[in-house]
Amino acid sequence: MREIRIRLLWHKQAQFAGYLLAEQLGLGEDAGVRIVCEGLDFSCKHVNAVLTGKTEMCVASPAHLLESADPAALRWLMAIQQESPLVYPARRSDGIATLANLAGKSAGVWPGHEDLELRWMLARAGLPDDAVTRVEMPDTVGPFLNGETATGQMTCYHELHMVEHAIGTEDLVVFDGKASSSTILKDGLIASAKLVEDEPEVVQAVVDAVLEGWTIAFDEPERAIAAGLAARPDRTRDEEAAQLAAIRALSLTGATLSEGLGFPDPAHMANVVTAMQELGEPVPAIEGLRDPRFWLAAPQRFRRSEWEA
Hints:
CATH topology of the largest domain: D-Maltodextrin-Binding Protein, domain 2
Number of strands: 11
CATH architecture of the largest domain: 3-Layer(aba) Sandwich
Radius of gyration: 19 Å
Mean pLDDT: 96
Shape: globular
Helix content: 25-40%
């Protein structure tokens, strides 16, 4: 049995329900592949885990790939979510009503090349790259709640809810990149280029299993919630259910509805290139980094485009 380790983008939770189901149900084992999901490790996140050989695959974005130490050693195979989940809340009582009001203040961001979207948003709001001090933020919302940062990088399905629960919504203004068309996808399945070249049958088995897992998650949410709780008994059913519903909304939109579940929309990578260019960052050659062959060869029933609301 070939074991394939997938380093998740965050801690195990409903955000990764399809991957967790693929692992827990043994999807892929009929093809000789066992999937093992690994949670967040700040010392070696997502693409770095693949580049250093700690895992064969990871959940990460085209931006993580292009900003990595060796983009040519990675391949973007598919994406489940089709919209960015990132939001940046701030307090009106701090005198913040627009992104421009963040000038001279600090923003919490996760470590490891996670700030491209925020920088792009601020640039399109007319702020120079050094106008806002970016502070590495751990896997909590403490720095924002404690007033150490004026805003913080959060997801609409997890950290934002924690902030709203802690301080309410009346004083909050929540920014995202939609108004300025500066959103960047956070989701994707990325593999080692060597694995793709040397063991394509293994890669195909993983892609098929992950797509099957996500199809089950969206068709049978109770099974997905149970998978999340099995991986994270410290969370509640309501937390997992709410998160799964948000992930479903982020996924069953855009290219999913025109192409099918998991489609690695080239527009997402093009968006990253535009952001890097506008910010003056060097852009690596992107030809061949997106590899849709395995998604295209997956069973149609697991990459369908029609879903119930």
